[in-house]
Write a structure and sequence with these properties.
single chain; 402 residues; alpha/beta; 10-stranded mixed beta sheet; 3-stranded mixed beta sheet; globular
């Protein structure tokens, strides 16, 4: 019998808002934050559309720590502080070695990389910044969260492209189930709105010229965004013993690989991950009311994900409420799954399914109920969050009411 793992705190920051409640309010309202990117460093890019955080909140993080942090780490720390604050937990001498963190990252510290390239190749400086390596490393976000919150238990980073958040949360659940920690702070972060990353995505010809329209027949691709989402996880017994408010239970996880192509998705991989997740959670297809789709807005992804959902859920697929919140916060790569966790948890708590924004035209190949444009009231007993990534790495999470 698995230990029951529950969520007692959530934090988030992205173009929709600088905390989890603000993000959820915008999701619920169906307001997309995708628009023109304001950075002056985008030069010759053809697509200058994304979902950026216009102004960072007053986070109060000490300057001595800030100088060693790239933007993706800073976003993770902001979200983690909010999550821990909501949970009511504090790491102290008695608990610090039983509290850890796992943070998923899709890319790494590209802001620092570009700053150094400009300094050396354009400005003629002869050396890189002293904190370049600790800023750039993909595990920097988990290390910075650990330092800021005083977490001395299991601490590591996870990177699996767009599945990174879900893999990180699944890994954190495992740490608790294995008895290595009592509390884990888990989620994902990314800050990809820099010239080099956008230039690479532009070369793939998958960026939408205006906005992200998942499942809409006239969709033209994905939009990139920046952000972070974090959750505090602990066992049900641990949370109850301290009188914590439980937001939802992480009922299960399913992981798989396509083992097929580095970029082209398959139906079999996502199907296997969803089936494994339902089995781990002890859920039947008809038990799930809401599915937050990977839903990137590319032709291939949306059609293949729809087909995979039909394989897994059968007749129940047509009674399932589906939506892609990437239509509002864009594809935040390593942070996407963690932001979508907020959507799943709040859908369970409030009985509201957030919509797929920007939807204009039905696609016969995406014929499920994709909750177009307007949120819907519905009792959500259990929710599924899909994460599929380049490399064919798939991670699916199940959440349910407690």
């Amino acid at each position: 019998m698995h230990k029951r793992v529950v969520i007692t705190g959530m934090g988030g920051i992205c173009g929709l808002g600088t905390n989890a409640p603000a993000i959820w309010n915008e999701m619920r309202a169906g307001r997309s934050a995708i628009g023109a990117i304001s950075s002056p460093q985008l030069h010759d890019l053809k697509v200058k559309v994304g979902c950026e955080i216009k102004t960072l909140p007053d986070h109060g993080i000490d300057r001595k720590q800030l100088v060693s942090m790239d933007r993706f780490s800073l976003l993770a720390v902001i979200a983690a502080r909010e999550a821990l604050r909501q949970s009511g937990l504090v790491a102290d001498e008695a608990t610090t070695y039983r509290m850890g963190t796992v943070v998923g990252v899709g890319v790494c510290g590209w802001e620092a990389i570009e700053e150094n390239y400009r300094a050396i190749l354009i400005e003629g400086r002869n050396r890189a910044g002293i904190f370049t390596v600790p800023k750039v490393m993909p595990s920097a976000a988990s290390g910075q969260v650990s330092i800021n919150l005083g977490l001395r238990g299991p601490v590591f980073g996870v990177t699996s492209a767009c599945s990174s958040s879900n893999h990180a949360i699944a890994s954190a659940v495992d740490q608790i189930r294995l008895g290595r920690a009592d509390v884990m702070v888990a989620g994902g972060t990314d800050a990809p709105l820099v010239w080099g990353i956008l230039k690479g995505w532009e070369a793939l010809r998958v960026l939408a010229p205006d906005t992200c329209r998942p499942f809409s027949a006239d969709r033209q691709g994905l939009s990139l965004g920046e952000g972070a989402g974090m959750a505090v996880l602990e066992t049900y017994e641990h949370a109850m013993a301290r009188g914590a408010t439980i937001l939802a239970e992480i009922a299960g996880a399913g992981l798989s690989a396509d083992a097929s192509d580095i970029v082209a998705p398959t139906i079999e991989g996502p199907t296997a991950a969803m089936r494994a997740c339902l089995a781990d959670a002890g859920l039947n297809p008809e038990d799930v009311d809401y599915l937050n789709a990977h839903g990137t807005g590319t032709k291939a992804n949306d059609q293949i994900e729809t087909a995979a959902i039909k394989r897994v859920f059968g007749d129940a697929a047509y009674r399932l409420s589906v939506s892609s919140t990437k239509s509002m916060h864009a594809h935040c790569l390593g942070a996407s799954g963690a932001l979508e966790m907020i959507a799943c948890v709040m859908a369970i708590r409030e009985g509201i399914v957030p919509p797929t924004a920007n939807f204009r035209e039905a696609d016969p190949d995406c014929d499920l109920d994709v909750t177009p444009n307007v949120a819907r009231e519905r009792k959500v007993r259990a929710a599924i969050s899909n994460g599929f990534a380049f490399g064919g790495t798939n991670a699916v999470l199940a959440f349910k009411a407690v």
